[in-house]
Structure formats: C-alpha cells, structure tokens
Amino acid sequence: MEVSNLLTVLRAPARVQAKSRPDRSDQLSARVRRRLVTSLYSQPSSLAIGALATFSAAIVSAWIANLPQLYVAAVVLLLIAVARVTAALGLSPDSEGNSTATLELVYEIGAFSYALVLGCTAAYTILIGTQTQVEVLMVANALGYGIGVTARNAGRLTIAIGQLCLTCLPIALACFLTGSLGFIALGITILLLIPAMISIASNIFKVLRDSIAAAETSKKLADKMQVLARTDVVTGLANRAGLNHAMVETMMAVDNDSRLALIWIDLDRFKEVNDLLGHPIGDRVLSEVAKRLSGVSPEGGTVARFGGDEFIVFCPIDDRKDSEKLASEIHAEIMRPFRIDGERLEVRASLGVALLPDHGDDADTLMQSADLALYHAKVGGRAQTCFFDSSMTRDLVRRREIEGELRAALQRDELSIFFQPILDLETGRIKTFEALVRWFHPVKGELRPDEFIPVAEETGVIVTLGNWITAQAARVAASWPEDVTIAVNLSPLQIRAPGAALGIKNALREAGLDPRRLELEVTESLFVEDNHSTAAFIDELSEIGVRFALDDFGTGYSSLGYINKYPFSKIKVDRSFVSGAQVGRKSDAIIRAVAEMGTTLGMDIVAEGLETIEQVQAVKDAGCNLGQGYYFSRAVPDYLAAMLLAQERDSTSKEATG
Asked: Rounded CA gap, 44 and 284, in Å?
C-alpha cells in the first residue's frame, strides 16, 4: 500500500462524519433507520405497564359511570395492548428475516390504533357529560399516555407525532364542541401542548439519530483501523498481527481431522538488493513476491509478511504430499527472474515447513517447528526446502546446552589456544602461527570447533570469544621472535559488532605486540554480507599496521574485486584444492593461477591442508611460497610452539657456526 493510499484511508473518517451529519430532509441510512426502529421494540414491559394503566382507568370509569360503552372501549384497548406486546415479543429486530419496513408497519398499526381508541374514549366521556371524576380520570390518562409515548417513540418521529395527535386531537375537539369556557381553555391548552411535544420529540430524535450515526462512523473507523493494524503497508498482505488472528480463526474453525501447513519463507541474501539497488527497489521486489505467493496459495489460506524478508503461508492441505507440492510451487514462483525498471533480478529463498497436527497442535508449537525447519534449510546451504523433524528439536536443545556451557567455559578458563605453524616452503622456517581455539570440557572431553563455533556465531557469543582468542594469541606471540607473526581468524559477526576495531587495538596494547605482527584472516562471505562495516574495520586497523589475509580462497564468492579493493597481504588456498577429493589437473591449474596472481601483486600464497611430501612439492612447484598442514605440525599448545621456534633457532645457529 502506498503512502498516498494510507493517507486516503486515514482521512476517510472525516468524510464519513461529514456524510453522516443530519441534513434538512432527514435522510437516514438503512442501518441507522434499523437501529431506530429496533428501539421501538426494546423493553416491551413498558408497553404492558402503559396498557395496564389505561385499561384500569377505562374499567374504573365504566364502573363509576355505569356505561357499557366504556367497558367495550376497555376491552378493545386490552385486545390491542395484548396484540402489541405479543408482536413486540414475537418479532425480533435482530432477525434478518424481519425487514425494517415490516417491523415499522406492524408497530405503526398497533400504536396508532391504541392511541386513537384511547383518545376517542376520553373525548366520549367529555361529550356525554359524565361525572367529573370520570372525565378527569380518562383525560388525564389519555394525555399522560400521549405525552409519555411521544418521548418513548421519538426514535421514529412520525410514529411519535401520530400517536400524540391521535390521542390529543379527539379530546381537544370534544372540548371545543361542549362550548364550555373551561373545556375550550382545556382544548386550547392541548393544542398548544401538541407543537411543544413535537419540538421535544424532534430534539430527542435528532440526538438519537446523531448518536447512532456517530456510532456507525466510529465502527467503520474502528474496522478500518483494525484492517490497517493487521495489514503490511508494503505488500498489502497480512502482517504478524494479521497472521496471528487468521491462524487462531482458522484453527478454531477446522475439525480435528483437518490438516494444515505452515510454510516459513526467507529470501536469501535479500539485504544485497537493498544495499545495491536501494530500498524502493527492495520494496517492489517484496511486493512482487507477495503477489506470486498469493497467486500460488490455495483457497482458504493466509499469506503474510512476517517481517523484513520473511513470509509465511498458512493453509489447509490434504496430506504431506500436498504440502510438498505446494512448497515446490512456491519455490519455483519465487525463483522466477524479476524484471524491475529493466533490471533482471534473481531471488532465492529457503523454506521451512511444519504440519498440523504432525508437528504441533497449536499455533505457537507449529511456528517453532517451522522456524527450526527454516533454520536447517539455511544452514544446509540455503535455497532449499526443509520439513520439520523431531531431531531438529534435539539439535536445538544441544545448541542451547552448548551455548550455556560455552559462556561458563570462558569464565572457568576451560578454553585454550593452540598454534599451528605456517612455514616458508623454500627455507622451511616458521613464518607464522595460526591461533586455533580448543575446548576441553571437564566431563565431555574435547569438543570440536565445528560443534561450538557455529553456536557461538548464532548466539552472539562469538564476539566475546573472538576478542578473548585475539587477546590470548597476542599475549603469547609477544614472547616470540619479532620476525614471527600470529594469525587469528575473525567471524563476520565479530567484525560487525560495535567497537570491533577497538577490541583488536586493546588486545594489542595490553599484550605489547607490534600491530604489524598480527594477521587477521577473513573469509569472502564477509564482503558479500556487509561491505560498509567491513571496509571501515579494515581501513582502521590497516592504518596502524595490522595485516589481512583472505582465508579459504576459492570456496565462496571468489572475486578479484575484493583483492583489488582491500589491502590483503596473503591469500590462503583452501585445503580442498590441495588434499580434497577433487584434486587433479583442474585444481593444480587453479593453484598455479592464484600463485601467479599473488606473485604479481606481491602477496604470500599459503597452501592449506598439506599432509604428504608429494603435496608439499606440488604446491611449491605451482608457485605457493607458504604451507600449512599436518605434514609440518598439528596445532600445539603455546609451550610447544615456543619449543618449535627454539629448536628452529638452535638448528639455524649451529648451521651458521658449523
């Protein structure tokens, strides 16, 4: 929804209020008229009480005056009253089968009939000249009824005025016909009473009408605001609140045998679209994704934008196969290229699917299951669909357990830094040690880095852990010969954390290590995800002499643009090109190309994963000048690293003196 559309919706209440204001012709909307007619049928007990009062007055008058005509009038009033009360109880204004016109007509017949009979009965007592007490009793009852019912029925002004006139005019006419001065004065008073009561009834009617109209307007406004509160402005889909509402309603409406699917969709690397093309283009991509999802979603389903670049499709399904087909169609729709302002864009998505009742019997459990499935889809390489499995919950419990233990391990000094040497392939001398973290759990033994590093990255502990590794490595390296450097791996999350460069500077200062002896190894994925913060981080530390190495080159989003843009002094060729299953002519050619590029640019080229003398000779012949791997040494504790350096220096010294 565009901003202009949103303003239009918000301005609508003002127009509604203007339209709902009473005009001079008293034109009312059908809903307002219905509400007013409904007010006539409210509290039928008041009709019964009024009828009982006038019936009793007629019976007493007939008994006092001993006039059969008054008994007849009393019976007629009673019959009309019974019919009116019965109609009020039998005709429900809440029933759509009873039209407003029918309700109004039935009420008019009863009301006008009763008022006319009552007014004529009171007028009759005046014309025949009965006893004064009878005249007073009937006239007072008739006038009181006419005045009271005018206020009660002011919601329908024509009925109120009709009852007032049919009750009072016969009495006034009878007063004038007697020719008596007192009765003439009474007739004039009654005639003056009629316009006064009409004025009062009109004011009551206007107040009622305006109140109901205002209530209708408020209801419409509330409905519109509710729609806005449950709608995503960018895509027009349901937002998170709308999704929750739809899920509750859907789950309450289905029977126990029904099956539902919740498909959680995350657009892979959508941040790049916003960063490279701008948020307006990003919003248009989101709108197009919303249209495609709505088009492929089955009838009765809900499509929602959960937030950011995440969408959810919640819909009824027949079975798991049906959900698999739907997920496949969703994936295919999203992956179709977009064409926006002449630009061709391709978007990938990861999907997590959970089914009800298989993976949860309530909305919260179903959401958690789909979220876990989505997480595994992204961890498994993105651009794929993953269905929830109970093992995912066990994995989650395991990750939460590792997270808690890792935080405690940092405080209890259970972590250690080991050092693996990187050697000059020409001289065999140690040029650098790479700092690698090891965790020796007091109960579980040694935990592999690939077990706890991903958990640390997911939970944010990697920032604390990374700073600790850098500080410990710098402290140990400060005791080594000045020509030996220390290499530390950095996580993208650590680099993006506030004050990341300051943490590195503090570690160097506290250890007393020359910044030029520190190498920070980063992977290529870092530049794809956040170029701005990465550039600022590298620039700030490069200014003080810290060097940077591009790690695992060739396995990610390899681009010569990164090498050209950032001040890398070293490239590490991934071990898969050296000792992996695909080692051969192609991998050898790649290593040669990288080595030649490094030589031209004045950079060191490190071959990782060297395990045999043949591999060492091969990468050396290919042009790599540095090597790292088990052939030379595994990662060792700090004291063994110092011994390796001491042995190397002693050997060199003996060769020089020999």
From this structure: 60
